[in-house]
Specification:
Elements (H helix, E strand, L loop, with lengths): L1 E4 L2 E4 L2 E10 L16 E9 L3 E5 L18 E3 L2 E3 L85 E3 L6 E3 L56 E7 L6 E3 L3 E5 L2 E6 L3 E5 L1
Antiparallel strand pairs: 1-2, 3-4, 3-10, 5-6, 5-14, 6-7, 8-9, 10-13, 11-14, 12-13
């Protein structure tokens, strides 16, 4: 690529590639269904001299009393966007309510007091390549909510453990770390774990639902009997670039580490940038 500024001509030169992990904010648990995990994208981008990579880290969704959980916010590097997780559903009618769509879909809400209506209520849809669908609800008597979808698997169907969907492991920093697990569905009888090793919150029984873990994009757990769900976990954006081409020019407050011949910038909040 070439740019002309007055009489001076600048030509961008390909100097290497960077690897990235982008995790969006997880959805909050609803008053029954678990929140879906934030969408996840992994890959590499060509790095040209003078390239600017603008970064934003999505926050987790917020639960609402007796209602759906809120969706998580998107995370991105330039135009590469991971979408926030879908909020879990609530028991708003005899048929409950579907989870919201998102990077991973929220779990369906069920009517936990009367068995529900005759119609199957589906979980929210995940986005292909970023996450999976939330678990549905078939309205079994006294049924809990469906588990939220994760980046690595669908949320459990209500009445079948209600666990959140599996997340994914990443080694981009040099050590194994789990991200983007779905939140567990709320239950009247048992605590239902979200995919805890991937940051998903547990579903509630008689206690408050678990929150998604900060900087994992985990979904919040669903509330029990119409109780309030957990907050979604915030996302993260990680850039790994060969130290030989690392410029040291950035904005925001990334944590900077090294792994072998790679320099790693981990953005954990708000916005920032890296300039090659």
């Amino acid at each position: 690529m070439q740019f002309n500024i007055g009489i001076i001509s600048y030509k961008e030169i390909l100097i290497g590639q960077l690897q990235y992990l982008i995790v969006a904010g997880g959805g909050a648990g609803g008053s029954s269904g678990g929140g879906g995990a934030g969408g996840v994208l992994q890959g590499q981008i060509d790095v040209f001299s003078r390239s600017i990579f603008r970064v934003s880290v999505g926050i987790g969704g917020t639960p609402v009393n007796q209602d759906f959980g809120g969706n998580g916010a998107n995370s991105y590097i330039n135009n590469v966007i991971a979408y926030g997780g879908g909020g879990g559903g609530g028991p708003l009618s005899s048929d409950g309510s579907s989870g919201k769509n998102g990077g991973s879909g929220g779990g369906a809400g069920c009517n936990t007091t009367g068995g529900g209506g005759p119609t199957f209520t589906p979980g929210g849809n995940g986005i292909s390549g970023q996450g999976y669908n939330g678990g549905g609800c078939g309205h079994i008597n006294n049924s809990p909510g469906g588990g939220g979808g994760g980046a690595g698997g669908v949320g459990d169907y209500a009445g079948n453990y209600q666990a959140g969907g599996m997340g994914i492991y990443s080694y981009i920093t040099g050590t194994q770390k789990g991200y983007a697990g779905g939140g567990g569905g709320g239950a009247n009888r048992n605590l239902n774990g979200g995919s805890a090793s991937f940051g998903g919150g547990y579903g509630a029984q008689s206690t408050s639902a678990g929150n998604g873990v900060v900087n994992t994009g985990g979904g919040g757990g669903g509330g029990a009997g119409g109780g309030i769900g957990g907050y979604g976990g915030s996302g993260i954006v990680i850039i790994s670039i060969p130290t030989s081409i690392y410029s040291g020019i950035y904005t925001g407050s990334p944590t900077i580490t090294t792994n072998g011949q790679q320099t790693i910038l981990s953005f954990t909040s708000a916005t920032g940038s890296y300039t090659a």
